[in-house]
């Protein structure tokens, strides 16, 4: 009976970090997996290999209050991991939304089934493509490797990591990096659409009888899609590089939770 209680106690310490992190990552969205039960089962399966290393240290948990504090600490670390890991996915979806907004297709905004948020058709396409690349490119293995390393930096029975004073600044830097990635991915299409709009403005200047407004959207849409076809491989290569950079979770979290 004591062995069973130790197993349950160890599992309650292993699960929160995975459980909270998976909630934020689009690739593990409950809408994609078919329900929260499946996602929670994945979190439990990922936590199982940690049980043998946690059970010998359960003697350090001296009270129920300490156990609750450790679980809360694990949830906070999982929140940081999920936040950092989700930035490339949010960026690629935002890039699609920016392109659609620039070509005048913002009226076609719809619900993203993975996140439950309003986005554009290209935003949904890029989000689904990025999620697929996350799994088929092997990036998920890189992410798991970095995730398990966080347990070496901050063992589950250590209480708690101290937040540094510049944590808020680092959060804002992550949002800044989100915007930087978004504009880097969308820049070729945005620039060509701007040039086409400039040309349409000149056309309207010299031929005022032509209604440029009705021509603008199909012309810009055609140009944007043509440019995307030309650099789509570079687009997703850049996305995979961003995934690799952001999955260096240990370096990111060491700055936040020393």
TrEMBL record:
InterPro entries: T3SS_IM_R (IPR002010), T3SS_SpaR/YscT (IPR006304). The chain crosses the membrane at residues 6-25, 75-99, 133-154, 181-200, 212-236. Pfam families: Bac_export_1 (PF01311). It is a multi-pass membrane protein. GO terms for cellular component: plasma membrane. It comes from the Bacteria. The keyword Hydrolase does not apply. Keywords: Cell membrane, Membrane, Transmembrane, Transmembrane helix. Its main location: membrane. GO terms for biological process: protein targeting. The keyword Amino-acid biosynthesis does not apply. It is found in: Cell membrane. PANTHER family: FLAGELLAR BIOSYNTHETIC PROTEIN FLIR, SURFACE PRESENTATION OF ANTIGENS PROTEIN SPAR. Belongs to the FliR/MopE/SpaR family. This is EscT/YscT/HrcT family type III secretion system export apparatus protein. It comes from Photobacterium chitinilyticum.
């Amino acid at each position: 009976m004591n062995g069973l209680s130790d197993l349950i106690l160890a599992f309650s310490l292993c699960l929160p970090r995975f459980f909270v992190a998976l909630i934020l990552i689009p690739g593990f969205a409950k809408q994609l997996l078919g329900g929260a039960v499946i996602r929670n089962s994945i979190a439990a399966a990922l936590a199982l290999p940690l049980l043998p290393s946690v059970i010998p240290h359960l003697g350090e948990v001296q009270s129920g209050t300490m156990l609750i504090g450790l679980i809360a600490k694990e949830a906070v670390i999982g929140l940081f991991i999920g936040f950092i890991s989700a930035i490339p996915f949010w960026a690629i979806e935002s890039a699609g939304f920016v392109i659609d907004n620039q070509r005048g297709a913002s009226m076609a905004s719809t619900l993203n089934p993975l996140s439950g948020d309003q986005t554009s058709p290209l935003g949904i396409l890029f989000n689904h493509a990025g999620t697929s690349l996350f799994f088929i490119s092997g990036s998920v293995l890189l992410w798991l490797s970095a995730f398990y390393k966080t347990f070496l930096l901050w063992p589950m029975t250590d209480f708690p990591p101290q937040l540094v004073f510049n944590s808020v600044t680092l959060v804002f830097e992550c949002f800044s990096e989100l915007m930087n990635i978004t504009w880097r991915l969308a820049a070729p299409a945005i620039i060509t659409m701007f040039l086409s709009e400039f040309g349409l403005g000149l056309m309207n200047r010299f031929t005022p009888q032509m209604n440029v407004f009705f021509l603008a959207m199909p012309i810009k849409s055609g140009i944007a899609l043509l440019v995307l076809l030309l650099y789509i491989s570079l687009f997703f290569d850049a996305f995979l590089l961003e995934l690799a950079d952001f999955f260096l979770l240990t370096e990111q979290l060491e700055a936040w939770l020393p």
